[in-house]
Amino acid sequence: MPLLMRYANVLGLVDRPDGVRKIHTRVIPKSGGLAIALAVLIPILYSSSKLTELIPLLIGSLVIVISGLLDDRYDLNFKWKFLGQIIAILIFLAGTPGLSEKTFFDNELFSGNEFLSEWATTAILFVFLVGVSNAINLSDGLDGLAAGITMISLGLIALLANDAELMSVFIVALALMGALMGFLRYNTHPAQVFMGDTGSQFIGYTSAALAIYLSQNSVSAISPVLPVLILGIPIMDTLMVMSVRMYAGKSPFYPDKNHIHHQLMKFGFRHYEAVAILYLVQICLVVTTYFLRYQHELILLLFYFLFASTCLGLLYLANVRQWKFRVETTDSVFVDRRNPLLRSMNWIFEYSVGIITLGLCLALTILNFATIQSHFMVMQLALVLLLGSFLVGIFFPQLSALTTRLLAYSATVLLLYAFAVSFTTGIAGTLLNIILFFLGAFLLLSIRMTRKDQFQLNNQDLIILFILLVGPLLPFEGDDGVKIGVMLFRMSIMIYAIEYVISKSQRFNFILKCFSTLTLFSVCFI
Predict the structure, then answer these.
(1) 0.70 exceeded by the pTM?
(2) What is the Cα–Cα distance from 353 to 363, expressed in whole angstroms?
């Protein structure tokens, strides 16, 4: 991502403000979409033997990427954008047999006419793919909005694919979630990079195609209309905006500021607040969809109609009554909302770095001694990462924070994996959980002690929090018996703690670096 951001101007992939519809006021790279595509397609090659049935989908994704890059580079007419989408969708539908067999139609009109039923289903799938590809593109109006909402939807797709044992869909969905997480690191407000049409069309097409393959597959018992709910927010927003435009006598593709996110900002919500609200609405929709996944099509469509009617009805009432959440909408104004109890506990913030560093060292010590007989693979990786960190420290001494991250992240991930493989219960696991519980609670309290500091939570952290809360409850296990959700929960607490220490103190940064080095050294040679 940073590499493509640096050379975005050379590639001609930059977004310039227009002073009318665009929110940003400076030139920003829009090479994020190319980075997302590469971050998905390159790692997928590692699992290519498991993805043979999704080759048409992946070929269509390449067509979408090429079309999007041309559009971002030369600002093509929307007709060329549609042409690229149509080619990609036809490749997917024609190359993936059996998609139209799970029909939407059970009435007398199609009874006994399998040919007509399959063609009607194919037409609906085509319209859905085109619609979602453009809906995600149109929803990409605020920093982190399209990527975050799509990532939440992909989480449900991955979960349902795991339940149906469709590992190809599971792998691609996780790969795209990982790419979007990396993109959100640079796209949360204020954004340093945009995804452009390349990214929005790529994630829209790929997510819609995965949802269709999941719901239309014969081994899956979920309803064929479930993709509408999985990607419900962008669909609802696009239908609402196009209806308003046509009612006003304009083209449905006429650019304006009638999107839901624009209206939330008009009501006085700040940029990141509008994004957070839509994240929460999408999370509620996705969670409800999961529990309704086996219901009849009419029940699902009725639920979606009531959901969309409620959301749009609230927006309409707010517009009619000219409701305002706040009059002032400048992000730079700071208001200290801490209660008196928190203000009286400033000592926590003053000693927070040392206490959190101590907690990290204790956690690493438990992991190190509990997994003293490490797997050979872990030992190899630890040695490579230790040598790599040493070389970075020697040749790039100015990158002290990077070296600390490399060492601390390596020690955390490798030891947590080795621990998960070796121990699932016992006193070591209980002691580790107790330390991480207090470490996480103290970390949250320390961050809450100040709102002016550089280390602040953002919209990406909201998605991470949702994943961490849900992850341990999910039945995901690796081939080696590792409970992935529990491991991710532990790992995230430690990594957030590492980031907190690095952002606060050079002295404790050095202590963490030395302790992580000793830990990796012991993994390699003891």
Answers:
(1) yes
(2) 15
Residue reference for tokens 């590792």:
482
Mean pLDDT on 267-280: 91
The crossing angle, in degrees rounded to 10, of helices 232-247 and 271-291 is: 120
Model pLDDT for residues 442-487, shown as the tens digit of each residue: 888 787 665 444 455 577 777 877 777 777 666 666 655 667 778 8
Distance, CA of 287 to CA of 230 (rounded, Å): 10
Using N-to-C axis directions, what is the helix angle for 427-448 and 400-422, rounded to 10°? Answer: 140
Tokens of 437: 């519980």
Contacts of 25 (CB under 8 A, 6+ apart): 17
Phi, psi (rounded to 5 degrees) for 128: -65, -45
Q: Rounded distance, CA 88 to CA 85, Å?
A: 5
Better-scored residue on pLDDT, 473 or 266: 266
The CA distance from 283 to 204, in Å, is: 18
State the DSSP string of 30-76: --HHHHHHHHHHHHHGGGGGG-GGGHHHHHHHHHHHHHHHHHHHH--
Is residue 494 a contact partner of residue 515, using CB atoms and an 8 Å limit?
Answer: no
- CA distances in angstroms from 400 to 360, 413, 453, 456, 513, listed in the order given: 19, 20, 21, 21, 9
Longest dimension (CA), the chain: 77
